[in-house]
Amino acid sequence: MYWYTLTPNDVLMLRDAKPFTPGERAWAGSVFPPNGHTIAGALRGLLGKKDTVEIKGVFFAKETAMEGTNNLEMLLYLPTPLGFVGNKPLIPLDWNKNVPLNHIFWDQTKPCPLTTEKQPSNNDKDDKKYRHYIPSDAVLKYLKNGNFEEEDLLRPKVEKHHPSYEHEKPWTIETRSHNSIQPDTKQVKEADGYFVENTIRMLPGWRLAIAVDQSTHQQIEKLSLNSQKLLTLRLGGEGHRVVIERCEVLDSQWNKLQNQSAQNFNVEGKKVAYLITPGVFERNKNGTAMCKPYPWEWKLAHTVNDNQQSGNLVSVATATALPISCRIRDKNGTNKSIPAPQVFAAPPGSQYYLNQPQMLFQDQENASRQAKCWRQLGYSEMLWISVNY
Predict the structure, then answer these.
(1) Alpha carbon distances (Å) from 388 to 52, 142, 383
(2) Residue 193 contacts residue 22 (beta carbons within 8 Å)
């Protein structure tokens, strides 16, 4: 895979998966960072092709000053794992027999409850500001050691205008209103109505980061050489553009994470799967598409009756699902598209606790074309961590 950064020229307008028609709903929702379908569509528009595009991401990258020098280096940032309270990891009760909570009753048809090994003390300050996105070097240490140092999760304590200052999120939201005026009047058209939507402005020094397959990379490089200027592509609505640039330094950062993750996966024992892009775990049941916060093929380790077959999944740490929608080719016209049904994805940062590592069905050779398509668009990307608790 070949890594690129995307730098917005201006604000970006990226609507979410909720249906919207001006006049029926006053607010148009937005989503950021953009999902894999949006990135793939932008790349196809740039390259002028309908071929399959394989991507990794979308992540963030930040220009960071190298220690002891004035040089800037691009550093990859991933979503913070959700299986932590501060810097204290959440542990399934089945893996933590020494806590008093083991006497409680819980629904055995669902993942095991989570708790911390050490309860927060009164000395812990509530004003600590934790990161929503963490740098790849901190993630690499997490993959190697199975835990974080608190300073890796905390935002740097510097003044707001200091070069090392980190905002809560690497973007701000700007609200824009839209309306249509009646001819020869100063009144808004009732038919079109008045609606408001949010635009995204990325903070200085921050960029989006994606990786593409070799074929796509070669076509981008060819276009860049022919244009003899910065290459841009349309991203989102209203024709807003981003500058796409090759960033080789991200290649090595990503390869280190992948190599360590693969090494952890190949060792037997307890594992935590760390989801770093939205996880789409979809299955068609009786003609209805159903989504889960964890893979369908991962069966729970605990059973409620003798007829059940136990699996490896012990527990799950996740948050509110992300609605994702796209457009698919109309079966009645190859050059037309129609809205696809919504799916609900597990948010990036979700974590899965397994007694033994287990591959996703989407990554297997016998997976359906639709399942493989989700992975080609960057969804359900995981890193594996070995744990000893």
Answers:
(1) 41, 13, 17
(2) yes
3-state secondary structure of 127: coil
Instruction: List, in order, residues 6 or more apart from 231 with CB less than 8 Å away.
Output: 46, 220, 223, 224, 243, 244, 245
The region that residue 57 occupies, defined by phi over 0 for left and psi between -120 and 50 for alpha, beta otherwise, is left
2-8: strand order across its sheet: 133-135, 72-79, 55-65, 206-212, 2-8, 241-246, 232-234
HSE (side-chain half, CA atoms, 13 Å) at 249? 13
The structure tokens listed for 73 are: 């280096």
Q: pLDDT tens-digit profile of 128-178?
A: 888 999 999 999 999 999 888 888 898 888 777 766 778 889 999 988 776
3-class DSSP string for 313-332: EEEEECCCCEEECCEEEECC
Provide CB contacts within 8 A for 80, sequence distance 6+. Answer: 130, 131, 132, 133, 134, 153, 349
More confident site: 258 or 287: 258
pLDDT at 288 over 80: no
Q: Are strands 194-202 and 171-179 parallel, antiparallel or unpaired?
A: antiparallel
Question: What pTM value is reported for the model?
Answer: 0.90
Mean pLDDT within 22-33: 68
